[in-house]
Amino acid sequence: MTSRVCVALGGETCRFRGAEGVLYMKSISGLLVMGLGLCGVVAPAAAQGYFAVSAGLYEPDDKGQEQTQIYDVRGGYRVDPRFGFEWSLSHLQLSDTVPFADNPTIPGIDFDSLNLKLELYTLDLSAQWFPTGDRWVVFGGPGVAQLDSDLVVTFFGKTFTVPDRTNIFTAHAGVAYVWNVNNHFFIRPEARARHYFGEDVTAPDRVQGFYYSYKATNYQAGLTVGWRYGS
What we know:
mainly beta, eight-stranded antiparallel β-barrel, 1 helix
């Protein structure tokens, strides 16, 4: 058996994973198909669809971590003046939030150097409610995330990479304000909170492999620029 290592950092945790990855991948595919499928639903004449891009700041719940930038692409459909839905796919360099990502430690093992690289991709599917039928939006829903982890190890002058790909269920909620520049172009500042239902660290009898999970509630604020189509 190949001996690998397990690392735990701040709000993130490593874990020893079984075969449930297949279930997560099916969930990712299911949410994506659902979101794209809803875009094709026949809606009333007053409905409007849109595509947009967004950029903002990502604030970890763990005070030992740091802010970083987050970017996403999104699309949605407003089926009537008060209700709609949206999907969004975001990406961030999660390792930017961990000040010691370039020097993690493993108790009892002395490596020449360790470097932890973390990239987080999150797919959100949101139901949207416009309480005044116009500017304000309250939204929330489920999602899935993929955490791409690479532990780069230098040991006795040799460098190698131990990868892991972890899929995590999420849930989110937030508020936004829509500023209509004209009939098609809009700007939307927003704030959202998201929880990642990652797994806790388990303690096996012996080291079996490097796995990484993310269990935390984090916050983001951003500005979205979009273009509407439809009536």
